[in-house]
Amino acid sequence: MLTRQRKELLLARLHQDGQIVAKSLSEELGLSEDTIRRDLRELASEGLLKRVHGGALPASPALGTFAERQRISSDAKPAIARAAAAMIEPGQVVFIDGGTTAVQLARALPPELRCTVVTHSPSVAVELVEHAHVEVILIGGRLFKHSIVAMGPSALEAIAQIRTDIYFMGACSLHPQSGVSTGDFDEAGIKRAISGMAQRTVLLASPEKLDTASPYQIVPLAQLSAIIVNRDTPDELVAPYRGMGIGVTRA
Known about the structure:
By secondary structure, the protein is α/β, with parallel strands linked by helices. It folds into two domains: 3-59, Winged helix-like DNA-binding domain superfamily/Winged helix DNA-binding domain (Arc Repressor Mutant, subunit A, Orthogonal Bundle), CATH 1.10.10; 66-250, Rossmann fold (3-Layer(aba) Sandwich), CATH 3.40.50. 37% of the residues lie in helices and 25% in strands. It is built from ten helices and 15 strands. The chain has helices at 3-17, 22-29, 33-45, 66-70, 76-85, 100-108, 122-127, 153-159, 185-196, 235-243; strands at residues 20-21, 49-52, 55-58, 93-96, 115-119, 134-138, 142-144, 149-151, 164-170, 173-175, 179-182, 198-204, 216-219, 226-229, 247-250. The strands form four sheets. It has a seven-stranded parallel β-sheet with strand order 6-5-4-9-12-14-15, sandwiched between helices. A three-stranded antiparallel β-sheet has the order 1-3-2. A three-stranded antiparallel β-sheet has the order 10-11-13. Strand 7 (142-144) and strand 8 (149-151) form a beta hairpin. Helix 1 (3-17) packs across helix 3 (33-45), helix 2 packs across helix 3 (33-45) and helix 5 (76-85) crosses helix 6. It is elongated and about 65 Å long. The protein starts with a helix and ends with a strand. Residues 64-73 have low confidence and may be disordered.
């Protein structure tokens, strides 16, 4: 079998099964495990999948640019945002992450809501300018242009001083085995710090993020209080999280 044919087969099986186990597939195809692993490494370098121990998982399309991500799941994100907004109680201090779904969450806040929103996203902060009863605390630092959020030591220092009731986390990927992950090492650390200061962490999981993996883990699944998904999400995709005791809200 030619290299091109093997790679096409690997991508087809990944699409069909949602994962590749190198050892099992090598036995099935009569190929060496080293050959399968080499093909997976090359496909990963092209951004077509995510290498994990023993095989591969789908790569997240949420690793694209901010403008590209705005066009993904454009119908699902406002619904997820409205469900998240409904979780906020008057007087709470909440942290809204950066990203396209987080911007939709800011837009979904009721105009009469009285609360404090902490964010390191200038995009989220600007959306809240007209909310007369929402106090906005904007955390500064170096601008990470992929997600349009502040990062760096000054951001981490500020985050460590604020305890929040809920952290609405955006992420590139969510998978039952790989947990919550993103495509940037420093961004993973920032999100981990925010989650560590929150009583509850709620993940905003638009459809393209489910059953995918990105290079850097943010938090283990046990740290999630709830996940908000689109109402059309198949039961088999959310069943593993319910089995772990994580609340799943369909929007």
